[in-house]
Structure formats: structure tokens, C-alpha cells
Design the sequence.
């Protein structure tokens, strides 16, 4: 079951195409990375999903239904540009946003109490937003995003501006939400975070779909038959014939094997030559490398 | 609908609960009261100035002359030279010399007033007035005239407006003045409302945009709901403030009157005395004004005033909201966008000032139908009972225009609030109107 499907979505602003024929399916209950450099069209896609704007053409389905006005209450959205009413009390503010998402007064109050307890901030109710530090405001912003128990959570650069402690706190919450079956879209241009958190990714550039799939598939697809091994003994002189040595240091080698050679064949060859192997690992490309390779390639093709 | 109501509530409550709102709402009528007290004291101060005047009237022209609270007259037989030496001992402030009347036909007489302190303007008028009355009496006796016959020569003429159609209500001669005063006040309140609360809406839209909360809001509610919620909420704040003032200002002025024994009108009493209007006439006039105010059809004026308040407010507040959404983070930079809104408001104020003097002119008719002027001009004409068809046409035009501009502004607003960066030009605003979703 897909929680979210986009089919051939196009969005044009007066002078450029922000979203150019994007299609993807997002399985329910997963963490989905929406990746791309700045200006790639991530925010435009999110604005369409959150019904802030409408696509020029194409269709969006949430839970199999075409997007309609009942859906915003099932979506929690934390924009990259955070914002709260500065002069409002924290408690009143959360009550307001929760009720706008359709919660009753009593439910809203209960949900806020739950989160206040969770973050041990029970005494914040009467504090004004402007009295809080930036990190504290981010916590409130996060609570306001998830207060109505959305089925789909959209986080746009959720860790920007957070110190490591608060970033970890939010990260734990993201995993917790996932455990409860919430589907999460995680939009960012920071690849190392994606590798850690996401299962599925969609990479876009200049409004176009560049790459999509599970993180594992994408990495397999882009692996280069590269291995690293640590050893004791002396390597035979014809060792270079098996592939291209990327890096060699005493007792350790990184090699990119010839296409027709499997890792087992190579390992056999080393053993036959009485090399003592201490470790043998495949080196998978990082998403960052794949990202740069793909986006760089597209950019070159365009110019 | 439910979400709109939530937004209205927030916009209303956060403002009404603000300390600055409570202070201005309560302090403004208090300031009015304080003003009345201060003005009253200023006028009172002068009346404490007591003058004792010695009158040298060799020919006995004046006969008797009555004293006032602050003026005491006494006749002296001594010569001017003697008096000049002794007036201080005798506790006089001044010496007044009445020259002999050489010719009874003379209509001019110069009286000399000797003193180190010049006579104040008010007192001078009062003394002159008394002398004129006494000399008139003297002349009547000397010329052997009949006082009653003479009195019958003066005929006071006043124009009393009457309707041609007998079934229509009669109006008193004071109607025009009262209408102009009430109209002026109502027109000015409208001007204040449109400007003050309209720009409050604009600032609030800009704040939401700058603080980026708007993106969170728009993911929960429609831009139209957010805009309307704000306009209605701020409008409610305006109504609340006006109603509190409408209640507090009369109460405080009554308290001031009760405690200090005067009110703002005491100033007009003084000027009446100065301009030689008979106090009896003043009282009759005051009674007529009160009757005229009571005779006005308040059951029609109040609802109509409220209607123009709402119509004018919605029309201008929605435009201010649209402009607010198009301005970037910098208010100064966006000032040029507000000019097309402020010019008609200011023009309307000037037209209103002319219209209360000529409430049935063609300028009055047309400007109270033109929707950008009518919210200010029409309330100022209500006390003159304008023709029914004009009121109906003006209301219809205002309703249609307000709805149209609320719709138009919403189309600009929904795009503007999501555009960050520099302010937009009018050309861009025009393009936004035709954007899809």
C-alpha cells in the first residue's frame, strides 16, 4: 500500500519550471528521503502535497484518494523556514494549531500535555514564544507538526539550526513515529543524514526525477566492484592484473576489480598465494558520491 | 467555517488581551476627561480676576450700573486728578471717566479707562456692553421716547425650514448646524477606523510573512480563511474599542461635570458672553440643539453607521491585506504600495468636510455613491436625512465593491504571502490575479 503517489506532476512559475513531470510512489510506514540540491524543486513538491499550491497538471494521491481538502488534517508539515507567533503563549499557540488541524479542545489539551511531559517542559505553557531560545522554539515547532498524529509527516531540513543534542532528540522522535506506523518524508540536501535515516529515496535535480529506489538498491546499482582488504605477507607481482589499485598502503589495499572478476575469485587468488587476510570488505559508494555523480552528469549534459 | 472562527478568535483575543490595547482603550476617554478639567480650570482662572472700578460721571449719564462677580463699580464725585492720587488708598484698580454727551444724536462715545493693568478682552466687552445699555436708557429718557415702542422696532428674523410635503417630519432652524456637527464627527470616526484598523491588518499580514508562520498556517487552512479571519478579528477589535469609547466618554464627561461643576461646554459659555449673546438666547439655543439631536432618526442612523463602518472597513482592510502580502520584510520599501489606498481615504475626508456644509449638492450625491468615498462621506450626511434612493444605491454599490475587492485581494494575498524576498511591483500584483492555485 502506498501512502502517497505522484503521477506526472508539473508546476510552472512564471519564469521557470519548478516541478517537471515528477512521479513516485511512497510505501506506507517508511522514511522517504526527498533529495536534491538547493532550488531543485523539493519545496515546490512539498507545497503541492500539503495543498498549499496546486499542480498545473498531473495527479497526487494520498492513501489512494486524489488529494482533497480533508487531507491537510492527516499531514504534518514542518517547513524549512520555521515560524511561530512570537507574542503568543506556548500553550495557547499549540492549542490553536492543533485545533486548526481539527482536534477538539480536550484532545488538543491532552496531546499537548503528553508532549510537554515527554520533553519535560511542563512549565512552558504560559511562556511566550519569543522568550524561548531558538532550539526550544524548534521543539515547539516539532510538537506543533505532530500534535494531530498525522499519517504523513513532512520534514523539510528538520535538523538545520539544531545543536547535536536537540538533533538527536528529534531523530529519536522520528524513529518513534515510524514505529507507530507514520510515514515520513524527509527533505534535505544533506546526504549523510539520509543514509542514516531513510529507506527510500527520490533524487531530483532542476525539477526532474534523477534517481529513486531503496537506499540499498541505489547503492547496489551504483557500486563499482571496489574492495578493501587488510593482509599480512607479500602480494604477488601480477596482482595489478586483477583490477585497478585505487589506494595502497602497507598491509592494506583498495582495489577496483575488473568487471568479469567476482570477489570470491579474487579472494581465492589471494589465498592461493599464501596471503593472510585479516579483513575483506566491499566498498559501497556513499549517497553523496552518487548524488554528485548524477547531478554533476546532468549539469554537464545540460550545458 | 469552524477554522475561520478559530482564526477570528485568535486575531481578536490576542489583540484585546494586549496591555497596550487595554491602556489605550481606557486611557483615551480619561484623557478626554482630563482635557475637559484642564480647559475648565484655564477658563476659570481668568474669572478670578476681580476689578474694582471708580466711575467719574459728572453728567450723571449712566444712572445705576450693576456689578458682576468680577467687576465692582462705584461712582465717585472727585475729579480725575484727585482720584489718580487717592485710588490706591480707596482700593480701586481703575478709574473710568464718562465724558459729557454733547449731542444726543451722536452714536459714538469714547470712555477713558485709567489703570496700570489693561482691561482683559472679555471684561472689556462686558463693560462696553453695560455702558451701551445704560447710555441707551439715558438717551431714551432724554429724547422723550417710549421704550416699548422702541423695542418693537427690533424684529428678530429667523428662517425655519419646513417640508413642502406635510407628511414629512418638520425640522428646526438648528437642524443644519447639528447635522453638520454630527456628520463631521461620524465622518471623522470612519476616516480614523479605515486608516487605523486597515493598517493594523496590513502590519499583521507582514508580520506573519516575515516570521514565516504563514507557511505552517497555509498547510492547515486556506489563504482566504486566514485573510478573512484576520480582517474580521481586527474589525471586531475596532468595534469593541469604539463601543467602549462610546460608553466611557459620556460617563467620564458626566463625572467631570458633576465633580468639577463644568464641562467642555463651559468654554462656549465664555465665548458666548464675549460675543454678547444673551445667556437666555444661549439656553434657548441649547434646548433647540438637544431637541434637534433627539429628533434625529437614530434608529436609522446607528444601523447605517454600522453598515458603512463594516462596508468601508472590509473594502479598505482587504486592500491593506493584499498590499501587506506583497511587501517584503521592509515596511519602508513597501510604502509606495500603500499610496493608492491612502489617497482615496484622504480625498474622502476633504470631500466630507465640504459635504457637511452642502449636504444636498451634487458633489455630496456622487461622492456618497462612489464606493471608495461613500464609507466616509455618507455617514456625514446621515443627520441630514439624505434621499432614500441615494442611501440604497450607495449601500448596494458599497456591498458589491467590497465583495469584489475582498475577492481580488484574496487572489493577490494567496500568492503574495508565499513570495519571499523583495516587494512586488504593481505589474506583478496584476499577474498574480491570474495565477492558478
Sequence:
Amino acid at each position: 500500500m502506498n501512502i502517497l503517489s505522484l503521477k506526472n506532476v508539473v508546476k510552472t512559475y512564471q519564469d521557470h519550471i519548478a516541478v517537471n513531470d515528477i512521479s513516485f510512489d511512497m510505501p506506507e510506514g517508511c522514511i522517504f528521503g526527498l533529495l536534491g540540491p538547493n532550488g531543485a524543486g523539493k519545496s515546490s513538491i512539498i507545497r503541492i502535497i500539503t495543498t498549499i499550491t496546486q499542480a498545473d497538471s498531473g495527479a497526487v494521491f494520498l492513501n489512494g484518494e486524489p488529494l482533497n481538502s480533508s487531507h491537510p488534517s492527516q499531514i504534518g508539515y514542518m517547513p524549512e523556514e520555521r515560524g511561530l507567533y512570537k507574542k503568543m503563549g506556548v500553550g495557547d499557540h499549540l492549542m490553536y494549531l492543533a485545533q486548526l488541524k481539527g482536534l477538539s479542545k480536550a484532545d488538543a489539551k491532552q496531546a499537548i500535555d503528553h508532549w510537554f511531559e515527554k520533553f519535560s517542559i511542563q512549565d512552558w505553557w504560559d511562556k511566550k514564544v519569543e522568550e524561548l531560545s531558538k532550539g526550544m522554539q524548534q521543539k515547539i515547532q516539532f510538537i506543533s507538526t505532530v500534535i494531530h498524529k498525522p499519517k504523513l509527516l513532512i520534514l523539510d531540513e528538520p535538523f538545520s539550526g539544531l545543536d547535536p543534542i536537540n538533533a538527536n532528540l528529534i531523530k529519536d522522535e522520528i524513529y518513534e513515529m515510524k514505529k507507530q506506523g507514520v510515514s515520513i518524508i524527509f527533505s534535505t540536501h544533506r546526504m549523510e543524514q539520509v543514509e542514516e535515516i531513510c529507506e527510500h529515496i527520490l533524487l531530483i535535480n532542476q525539477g526532474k526525477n534523477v534517481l529513486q529506489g531503496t537506499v540499498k538498491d541505489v547503492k547496489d546499482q551504483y557500486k563499482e566492484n571496489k574492495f578493501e582488504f587488510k593482509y599480512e605477507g607479500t602480494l604477488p607481482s601480477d596482482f595489478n592484473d586483477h583490477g585497478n589499485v585505487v589506494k595502497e598502503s602497507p598491509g592494506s589495499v583498495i582495489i577496483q576489480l575488473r568487471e568479469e572478476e567476482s570477489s570470491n575469485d579474487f579472494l581465492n587468488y589471494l589465498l592461493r598465494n599464501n596471503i593472510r587476510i585479516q579483513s575483506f570488505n566491499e566498498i559501497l559508494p556513499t549517497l553523496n558520491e552518487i548524488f554528485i555523480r548524477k547531478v554533476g552528469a546532468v549539469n554537464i549534459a545540460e550545458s | 467555517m469552524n477554522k475561520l472562527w478559530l482564526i477570528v478568535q485568535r486575531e481578536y483575543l490576542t489583540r484585546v488581551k494586549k496591555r497596550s490595547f487595554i491602556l489605550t482603550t481606557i486611557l483615551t476617554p480619561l484623557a478626554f476627561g482630563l482635557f475637559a478639567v484642564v480647559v475648565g480650570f484655564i477658563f476659570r482662572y481668568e474669572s478670578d480676576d476681580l476689578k474694582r472700578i471708580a466711575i467719574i460721571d459728572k453728567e450723571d449719564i449712566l444712572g445705576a450700573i450693576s456689578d458682576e462677580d468680577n467687576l465692582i463699580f462705584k461712582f465717585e464725585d472727585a475729579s480725575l486728578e484727585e482720584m489718580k492720587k487717592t485710588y490706591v488708598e480707596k482700593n480701586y484698580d481703575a478709574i473710568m471717566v464718562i465724558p459729557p454727551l454733547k449731542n444726543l444724536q451722536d452714536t459714538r462715545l469714547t470712555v477713558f479707562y485709567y489703570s496700570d493693568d489693561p482691561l482683559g478682552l472679555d471684561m472689556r466687552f462686558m463693560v462696553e456692553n453695560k455702558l451701551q445699555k445704560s447710555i441707551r436708557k439715558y438717551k431714551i429718557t432724554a429724547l422723550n421716547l417710549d421704550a416699548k415702542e422702541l423695542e418693537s422696532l427690533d424684529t428678530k428674523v429667523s428662517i425655519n425650514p419646513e417640508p413642502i410635503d406635510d407628511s414629512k417630519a418638520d425640522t428646526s432652524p438648528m437642524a443644519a448646524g447639528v447635522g453638520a456637527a454630527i456628520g463631521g464627527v461620524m465622518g471623522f470616526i470612519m476616516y480614523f477606523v479605515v486608516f487605523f484598523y486597515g493598517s493594523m491588518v496590513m502590519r499583521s499580514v507582514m508580520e506573519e510573512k516575515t516570521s514565516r508562520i504563514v507557511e505552517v498556517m497555509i498547510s492547515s487552512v486556506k489563504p482566504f480563511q486566514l485573510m478573512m479571519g484576520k480582517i474580521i478579528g481586527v474589525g471586531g477589535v475596532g468595534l469593541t474599542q469604539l463601543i467602549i469609547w462610546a460608553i466611557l466618554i459620556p460617563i467620564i464627561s458626566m463625572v467631570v461635570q458633576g465633580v468639577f461643576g463644568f464641562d467642555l461646554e463651559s468654554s462656549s459659555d465664555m465665548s458666548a458672553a464675549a460675543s454678547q449673546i444673551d445667556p437666555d438666547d444661549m439656553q434657548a439655543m441649547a434646548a433647540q440643539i438637544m431637541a434637534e439631536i433627539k429628533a434625529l432618526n437614530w434608529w436609522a442612523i446607528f444601523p447605517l453607521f454600522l453598515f458603512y463602518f463594516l462596508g468601508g472597513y472590509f473594502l479598505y482592510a482587504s486592500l491593506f491585506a493584499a498590499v501587506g502580502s506583497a511587501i517584503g520584510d521592509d515596511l519602508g520599501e513597501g510604502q509606495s504600495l500603500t499610496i493608492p489606498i491612502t489617497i482615496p481615504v484622504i480625498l474622502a475626508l476633504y470631500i466630507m468636510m465640504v459635504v457637511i456644509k452642502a449636504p444636498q449638492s451634487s458633489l455630496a450625491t456622487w461622492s456618497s455613491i462612489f464606493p471608495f468615498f461613500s464609507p466616509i462621506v455618507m455617514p456625514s450626511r446621515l443627520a441630514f436625512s439624505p434621499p432614500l434612493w441615494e442611501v440604497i444605491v450607495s449601500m448596494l454599490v458599497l456591498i458589491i465593491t467590497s465583495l469584489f475587492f475582498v475577492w481580488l485581494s484574496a487572489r493577490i494575498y494567496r500568492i503574495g504571502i508565499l513570495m519571499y524576498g523583495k516587494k512586488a511591483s504593481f505589474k506583478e500584483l496584476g499577474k498574480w490575479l491570474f495565477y492558478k492555485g
Chain A has two domains: 2-216, 224-283.
